[in-house]
């Protein structure tokens, strides 16, 4: 072999090695900030004020996540990344926090907003037609009486209706009373004043419900938030419903959870190391008090994680507010996005596996040196990964699309309660998958306050890495029912109603029972690349929805299930298909109808 040829081969091998090194160290995902000024989420101004929040919710049950941002309003998701502002719904408010759940179990998600700067705390009932009714009557309608900092829905007594807690931060704004708690009796609220936090005034910040000890009832966590660089104990409470039988809140006074001095803002309980139990994370505001990650060691014993155990996520100094958790790179473990107050950039930490975190400043989420308050995570474009909206000043109000570049798989699950509250708040889901040759159980929970004055989407999202199938899925409903499913196909959206089997790609539209079978025209039409197909079923039937091209070639079968009576819809994506006319057909035992749709690219 000649010297020149040998040199050439060596250069090629070196180039290949360099490319492999670059590829292996390339970021697993990148967030792209949406800057299109025709999108009202981008272009709408932010009124004066601070510490506001946001939520991804599907207020019209069309299978697309809509966005609510306090002080600005409600945005309907039109698909294809487009939004329109719903001016007839919840008008801009002088509000800080928001929480969403179906408080009256009518199949439509409702909204509560809380204000600390004005008497603008109200419950808004979803009417189902793009309009909301502000509730002015009863104790829940007394806005001056219900001022506060943060709020959260959760079913503390497991009666199938979500209750409401308002964290009333004194002496902030016009708040001059302790926190409030409202028990929900079949859609009607009564005030409960027997808890410590409803009788003692304090600088309460963000409340959240979570069954942190997995005993079947939701416990309550409220940050202390003095913002004085001295700190205090947070207001953390066991729920005594189980095993005692009576729902009540008993303050946690022992162990590291009950005694640690913090400047608590936003609590989350997540399984960071996939060991089956929930670990606790708390953002702290004061410069001298670092974030806390409490590692669950079993049997009610927790330790405060150190930098050597989990990385700089617990040692970096910033005025932290929100912590939003999700598997943003779909690799099977939970990552976290942290917001910070003015002058400090937001932080994004990637879970390297088994709960050690590395800060990734190249992910596109820093947001500049401006104040960012609330944040919410959800898959608004239905592409299988989690996107982020941040709320703050005009400069930090940003929509970030996740443009993930790996081939990791995922599952998205919408849970609908029957005996459990309709929004399935408090429900826990576990899936077992084979990750890199090892069987792992991954855990997610559904709650209505998991950011700073904000909430992530209620849909359950799992990234499952390179696993080709979900071996088992367990759903623990707050009614006490446990459902187990096996061999779940990934990269799909599922809806599961309590007590029923999961349905692929189906989004149910409430409890409407149609009088006849009917296939509707897709919308939009023409479309590119996603369109919505809806249909009526008037009795339990084996239903098949089939997509063909004009030559009769089978393209897809997005629905092939036994369905109960109802109105259903799917969002169908024309992946890798050319411009042209396509046919979609609805078939049952005694009904068949076909319609045309036009794809224009």
Cα-based radius of gyration, to the nearest Å: 24 Å
Largest beta sheet, briefly? 4 strands, antiparallel
| Continuous helix count | 5
Strand portion, in percent?
35-45%
Low-pLDDT residue spans: 5-28, 506-515
C-alpha end-to-end distance: 52 Å
Number of strands: 44
Structural class comes to mainly beta
The portion of residues assigned to helices is under 10%
Mean pLDDT rating: 90
Provide the spatial order of strands within the biggest beta sheet.
1-28-27-26
Overall geometric form: globular
Overview of this protein structure:
- This protein is mainly β and 601 residues long.
- The protein is built from five helices and 44 strands.
- The longest helix is centred in the N-terminal third of the chain and has 23 residues, at 3-25.
- It is globular.
- The model is unreliable at 5-28 and 506-515 (pLDDT under 50).
What are its keywords?
601 residues, mainly beta, 4-stranded antiparallel sheet, globular
In short:
Helix content is 7%, strand content 41%. With 601 residues, the protein is mostly beta strands. The chain is globular, with a radius of gyration of 24 Å.
């Amino acid at each position: 072999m000649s010297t020149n040829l040998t040199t050439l081969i060596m250069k090629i091998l070196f180039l290949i090695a360099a490319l492999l090194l670059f590829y292996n160290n390339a970021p697993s995902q990148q967030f792209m900030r949406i800057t299109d000024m025709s999108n009202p989420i981008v272009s709408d101004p932010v009124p004066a004020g601070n510490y506001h929040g946001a939520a991804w919710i599907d207020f019209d049950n069309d299978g697309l996540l809509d966005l609510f941002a306090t002080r600005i309003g409600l945005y309907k998701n039109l698909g294809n990344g487009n939004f329109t502002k719903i001016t007839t719904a919840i008008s801009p408010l002088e509000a800080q926090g928001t929480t969403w759940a179906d408080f009256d179990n009518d199949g439509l998600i409702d909204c509560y907003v809380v204000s600390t700067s004005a008497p603008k705390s109200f419950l808004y009932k979803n009417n189902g037609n793009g309009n909301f009714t502000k509730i002015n009557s009863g104790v829940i309608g007394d806005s001056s009486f219900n001022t506060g900092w943060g709020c959260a829905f959760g079913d503390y007594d497991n009666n199938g209706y979500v209750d409401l807690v308002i964290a009333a931060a004194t002496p902030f704004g016009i708040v001059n009373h302790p926190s409030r708690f409202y028990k929900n009796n079949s859609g009607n609220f009564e005030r409960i004043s027997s808890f410590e936090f409803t009788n003692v005034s304090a600088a309460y910040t963000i409340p959240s419900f979570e069954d942190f000890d997995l005993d079947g009832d939701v416990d309550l966590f409220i940050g202390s938030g003095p913002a004085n660089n001295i700190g205090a104990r947070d207001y953390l409470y066991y729920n005594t419903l189980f095993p005692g039988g009576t729902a009540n809140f008993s303050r946690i006074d022992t162990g590291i959870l009950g005694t640690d001095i913090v400047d608590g803002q936003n609590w989350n309980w997540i399984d960071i190391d996939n060991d089956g139990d929930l670990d606790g994370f708390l953002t702290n505001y004061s410069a001298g008090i670092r974030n806390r990650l409490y590692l669950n060691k079993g049997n009610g014993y927790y330790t405060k994680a150190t930098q050597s155990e989990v990385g700089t996520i617990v040692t970096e100094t910033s005025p932290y507010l929100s912590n939003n958790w999700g598997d943003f790179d779909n690799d099977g473990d939970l990552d976290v996005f942290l917001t910070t107050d003015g002058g400090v950039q937001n932080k994004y930490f990637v879970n390297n596996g088994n709960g050690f975190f590395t800060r990734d400043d190249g992910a596109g989420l820093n947001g500049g040196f401006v104040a960012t308050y609330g944040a919410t995570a959800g898959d608004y474009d239905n592409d299988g990964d989690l996107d982020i909206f941040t709320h703050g000043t005009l400069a930090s109000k940003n929509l970030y699309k996740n443009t993930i570049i790996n081939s990791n798989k995922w599952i998205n699950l919408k849970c609908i309660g029957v005996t459990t509250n309709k929004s399935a708040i408090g429900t826990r889901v576990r899936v077992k998958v084979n990750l890199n040759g090892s069987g792992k159980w991954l855990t997610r929970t559904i709650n209505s306050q998991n950011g700073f004055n904000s909430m992530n989407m209620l849909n359950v999202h799992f990234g499952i890495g390179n696993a080709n199938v979900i071996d088992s899925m367990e759903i623990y409903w707050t009614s006490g029912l446990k459902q187990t499913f096996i061999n779940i196909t990934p990269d799909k959206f599922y809806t599961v109603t309590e007590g029923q089997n999961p349905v692929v790609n189906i989004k149910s539209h409430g409890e409407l029972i149609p009088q006849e079978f009917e296939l509707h025209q897709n919308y939009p039409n023409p479309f590119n690349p996603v369109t919505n197909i809806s249909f009526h079923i008037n009795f339990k039937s084996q239903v098949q929805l089939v997509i063909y091209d004009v030559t009769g070639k089978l393209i897809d079968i997005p629905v092939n299930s036994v369905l109960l009576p109802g109105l259903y819809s799917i969002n169908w994506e024309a992946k890798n298909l050319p411009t042209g006319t396509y046919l979609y057909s609805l078939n049952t035992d005694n009904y068949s109808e076909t319609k045309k749709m036009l794809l224009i690219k």
